[in-house]
């Protein structure tokens, strides 16, 4: 049984979208995730920004069964994912 605090943390980590649970913005094959850095203006004022990976939701064969996974386009183009027909 989870405490109320643990449930609140889990709820913040997961968001519901299109009827399925979407977790972190991370490739399930290579683990690529968001990068952080600074946006630099002309006057050299620094603001924090993020670069997000280009994730695509694909149906793939995982251990002999078909699953929907989130994969970056680099893994898709590199042939690291066996897509389901």
Notable characteristics:
85 residues, Ribosomal Protein L24e, Chain: T, two-stranded antiparallel ribbon, 18% helix
Main structural class: alpha+beta
Total helical elements = 2
Q: Could you name the ranges where pLDDT drops below 50 across 5 or more consecutive residues?
A: none
Q: Kindly provide the name of the CATH class.
A: Mainly Beta
- Taken together, the total number of domains comes to 1
> Looking at the structure, what is the overall shape?
flat
Mean pLDDT: 84
Radius of gyration: 17 Å
Largest sheet: 2 strands, antiparallel
- Helical content stands at 10-25%
Number of strands: 6
Please give the structural blueprint.
Blueprint: H1 4-13, E1 15-17, E2 20-22, E3 35-40, E4 46-51, E5 55-62, E6 65-72, H2 73-77
Antiparallel strand pairs: 1-2, 3-4, 5-6
Summarize the structure.
The chain has 85 residues and is α+β, with helices and mostly antiparallel strands.
What this model shows, in words?
There is one protein chain. With 85 residues, this protein is an alpha+beta fold. The protein has a single domain, classed as Ribosomal Protein L24e, Chain: T (Roll). Helix content is 18%, strand content 40%. The chain is built from two helices and six strands; from the N terminus they run H-E-E-E-E-E-E-H. The strands form three sheets. A two-stranded antiparallel ribbon has the order 1-2. The longest helix has 10 residues. The model has no long low-confidence stretch (mean pLDDT 84).
